[in-house]
Fold each of these.
Amino acid sequence: MLRTPVNVTRLRILAWLREAGGDRSGFTADDVAAGLGVSRPVVLAHLRLLTALGMLRTDCCADPVVYRCDEARIAEVAEMFEKGW
């Protein structure tokens, strides 16, 4: 059971995706792992959770899968936690 969507690694992933995003249409798990210096299995576990929470969107048709932030959902989740949910 998920106790909280907040975790240092997940926050780093979201921040990195936002900062590195620029004009790119997303990043692979390997991109994120290399960018953060974290192992691919660890990154994949966090990417899957963030995707399940709706905070990331994926292009599942791409091979490999490409991830990008869903800014509207991130703002929605942040607002819930600010209100003490």
Amino acid sequence: MNSLFKALNDETRRQIVELLKEKDMNAGEISERFNISKPSISHHLDILRQADLVTSEKKGQFVEYSLNTTILEDLLNWILTLKK
């Protein structure tokens, strides 16, 4: 759970999650939306992947990233249990 909160603690990573909410994208498509280097985007994607917020799949010469909604559902369910 700590890696999940660490991943969501950064504004750029939250924006990447928002982008992936709309559609699956490769790193190049994601980096076009930001004014930061491609290696920085790759670093952010790696942190999101380690937290299981995104999944990656090789498609041809590109790696496509998708939002993993299961982990978000687990987080939401956990938060709701705190409401008692």
Amino acid sequence: MKHKIAFIDMDGTLYQTENDIIQESTLAAIDQLRQAGYKIVAATGRPLNQMKLIMDRVEFDYYVLINGGYILDRDLNEINAFPIVQRTVNDLVQLAKDNEYGLMFHFGDATYIYNDFYPMYYFSKYANVLDSLFYDPTHSFHKRHRVFNAVILTKDPAGLDAFMEAHPNLRSDLINIKTEGIAYDIFNSATDKAEGIQAVLDYEGLDWEDAIAFGDSTNDTQMLEKAGIGVAMGSATDYVKSFADIETTDVYHDGIYNAVKQILAQEAGE
């Protein structure tokens, strides 16, 4: 079957987060997909303002951002959005204050630190996104703007576990990134990359069988499972790999290129 659209995770899949590298082989693979008629879509936990270093090197047709919460076309026009309800955002602010958690909010095109500035600063430095980061000591930006995602940083997640039980409209994903403490993405329980991808597929008049998905983390499992071909990176856990159709090498060893070579060769032979 000839597929038509590729959804690509960023950190640990397309992008070497800690050293700001996109392999030349990855760029070549994306060019090969384009030449074969594929649409190329970023499917990431990052907000738009933290995509600059990647967008300088890769052109995308669509952006599924903030784990499916914020979806844009190539011209950065909004296709769909799934913000966290205001009352729940207020509760997150209070949770972080009461427990001295590091707290950061993604607002679609802006990111603000609220609590524990330096732990969140170092977290963001590792991810090469300091130039897109702001600090709000007043804890008020969320009162005027839509929140799509929170990042919580803590050394003791017990309080967060209790909070999540009391807020079934939310879910948390462990962030696989080197930092002091434990970091979690917090977002709507019904929102994930697969929901954002569905918005793009509907917009293009395509279905999941037309799609290839590349990922390495737990927030990629649904898109890996639903896509016509799900590709797990070599660095993925066995759990994540169980949702994929094929496994490739990791982001340091031509992972996307090797998978694309295999897929295009298979399609050419059909």
